[in-house]
What does this fold into?
Amino acid sequence: MTEYNYNPNAGTIFSMTNHEVYVVTSSHNGKDGGQIATWIMPASLVPDRLRLIALISPQNFTYSLIEKSRKFALNMLAVGQEDLVPQFGLKTGKTLDKFEELEFERAPSGCPILNGTCGWIDCRILDTYMLGDRMLYIAEGTAHDIDTEKSPLRKREAFEAQPEDILHQLIEKHRKDGERDKLYIRDYR
It folds into this structure.
């Protein structure tokens, strides 16, 4: 296990967070995409109207599929699925099929649902808001499933479980994405 101590939010209250790790998937015209996301949260207390917020980078291939299809699925990774982090966090669906060697099902919307997760939510987009470096999606869950026997994988533990070379690649990608995103925030409003 490698110690994960990279924190772009050092010195703020956000340095104390340790979010669940999701793979956000989408599908459009026979093409599947998926990416790691940690900025996911419930957006309602009403139990029969499952609503949520997801923030996605417009630089990712999955974003283009979400925009075209107006749908996505959240797959909450479970402890033991750390190997999916580099698969969905370092590779791009623009040039390869991330699902080629994975076992998965399809949500009612057609979005990929990964096997072995804590659960999933199939989502349709209700509204969007561009933040410059991220698109904020307000979505409604149209179908979902949960495995209460599993525990969620959290970001810090997911990163610490990576081999040292993969951890360095993840940290470097995070750093480069942050530098790139400064331009989008600067140019936004």
